[in-house]
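ok so i was messing around last nite and threw this chain in just to see what happens. nothing serious, just curious
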Amino acid sequence: MKVVQVCKYRNDTVEGVDLFEEVIRAAQGHDRSFYIFHGEAGNLGERLGCETVAFNFSKSDIKRIRPSAVLKVLRQLRRDKPDVIITHRMKPSVFVAWCGLFLPGVRKISVVHNMGEFKRPRRRLFAKLLMRGWKFAACSEAVRQDMLLRGFTPDEVVAIPNSVNEKIVRDNLLDREQARRDLGVPVDAPRVIGTVGRMRPVKGHKYLIDAMRQMDNPPHVVVIGDGELLDEMREAAKQHGLADRLIFAGGRKNAYRYVSAFGAHLFLSTDPEDVRQVLDAGYAAATILSGAGLQHKDDLLRIAFDGDAVLFSDESEQVFQSSGLEAFTASEKQAARQPLSDGPFKAFLEALHQIQREFSPQRCPIRTALVTARSAPAHERVVRTLRGWGIRLDESLFLGGLPKGPFLKAFGADVFFDDQQGHCESAREHVAAGHVPHGISNPRPEDA
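result:
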């Protein structure tokens, strides 16, 4: 199968993990060509193992959709005889839509990067008239929902979240000390939060300042990226006395290299194997399952956790599964004063607790809950363990085997983490769920 991908330019700020590259890399094993309208192809062909075609159009050629430029693309497509054409962003899609009038039978896919890409009425009309039969791949569920609101049908649009090549990221990461020095962050800063992206209103950077103003001891926050809000944000940081904590690092090539500078505590993915690898490395991780969205009347973030094999180790769950409920209850009663061992999400809960301590109970924007199938007397060991950790949960629900979904809905959880797939499937009817493939309930495929 011949696959042609059409882009306006080559993204030279991110090499190896850019979405343009990830899409064409996914077609490995097929005959592939990468068309670039403006600028040089660089070493794309060598890195991706595909043919590259640089048209060297001027910005005016692209903006005005000059017929001579469209004709040049059409001639190249006729030479390549593609089975599938993939476009990124609006201008390449328009070029290919006109070319498509003379290329019957070729399947076309448009990758939609941003919300509002079809906000203008004339763009929607163009899509209706000249992009019939196309498939649209939205870069997130939010982008997909935006397109559905603008008249596209569920059959036309699928959400495929962005992803990156983990090996490329790992091979190019800077160590923490070097990354922090390069960004201007104190090497010994206890908490560092980072965000990467162009500084545009839609990104919501202003909420960083709003949140930091409410904290007695805010963390260091690093903003990597340039954009129209940079000067405004700098001035606001000075005005509110945050200039030493809010660091504007500017645009950085291959910004992913600086991830090690930040105190990341949680990894979410739709790839279970990636999640297992992160859990094996000692970090909290979960396979995210989309669920019903809750409409909150406030701006609180509510996170709920299962206990065994999530906050705690699976030692008690092993007793339950091997010997039954009666033996489990007896074992927990006997070990009530013996703390449970740490589970994979303990460090994440501790990090949340540290943030909560920066606020008064009335102003805290985060609420946490334990939602477990345990009941009395097995609850005592859990309570004593949390007390020994010095961690306060806002709510603790010991359900004695009752379904968790209705209680999670009542709590208003934004996400719930559980080690048992069945509990996650039940919970996702009410809230988003994260499956934690850890412990005795999740044997590895090779061990099954």
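not much to say yet. The radius of gyration is 26 Å.
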